[in-house]
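Much of our argument rests on the idea that a fold can be written as discrete symbols. The amino acid sequence and the backbone structure tokens for this protein are reproduced below:

___
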Amino acid sequence: MADALILDEFIPFRLSFTSNLVSDTIARAYEALFGLSIPEWRLVAVVAEMEAISQAAIGQRTRMDKVTVSRAAIALADRGLLERRANPDDRRSHLLALTDAGRTLYGAIAPKAIELERRIFEGFSQDEIAAFVAMLRRIDAATQAVRGGA
């Protein structure tokens, strides 16, 4: 069969498999070291880059769904790591910002994240990594085009 689908050679499957493998590896480290799930860590990282950001903007930036973002935000707020602020541009939404404790946590996590990334990719040259990231960005753009820009 010329059109047989061999899952291990199907690029979307390979991307998903590898992404899940990397995410699961990192999730174990964040859970063990900081008691954070991957969605919580992603939220902390995105909010740390901004002064304040809406949940909708976090969802767009991370491709996490509304429920996942909302649950992570609630969990982080309950731990005193995140605060909700009024959104002056949209009274129906709130902006999320890290508290001092959240910024301290981010300061402890960021070096660990960079170290994990280094360990995963230490067997690759800088040129290979740059080419890989460039290809991922091209895949993002091509996928957005297939989706009609959604």
Observations:
- The chain has a mean pLDDT of 92.
- The radius of gyration is 18 Å.
